[in-house]
Amino acid sequence: MLSRGADYGVRAMMDIAKRPPATRAVVAEIAQRQNIPAFYLAKIMPRLARAGLVRTSLGAAGGIALALPAEEISLLQIIQAVEGPFALNLCSLNPAKCKHHATCSVCETWCQAQTQLNQTLAGTRLSDLTAHVTTDKRSLRTR
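The chain above was modelled as a monomer; its predicted structure follows.
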């Protein structure tokens, strides 16, 4: 199961992507709109910034903006930025580290499932996710 942090990261990125171009979001406002604890979201944002997915700036005109176009950001990138490597189990992450890999009849299935999951997540773009959501523009204060 994905962590709550990964879910929050995806929801926050969708919120940022829905904003008009050249505007910045504020963590507290994203947290309020997405019903995410602000202190938790404040811990997630630096991870997304280190991964090169968002840009943050301080000051009166500061805030958070996408670092790349939403079409260039995948769901897998967001999840991995928040959680690190995403795996169904140890065997699917690195079969060489599984002591049962050579004799386990389910290992190949885990690895195939992991590959399919990664392909689906990598092929799902942030823009795909936000295209299906209507936005109440009044709730997105422009900075």
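The beta strands are 54-57, 63-66.
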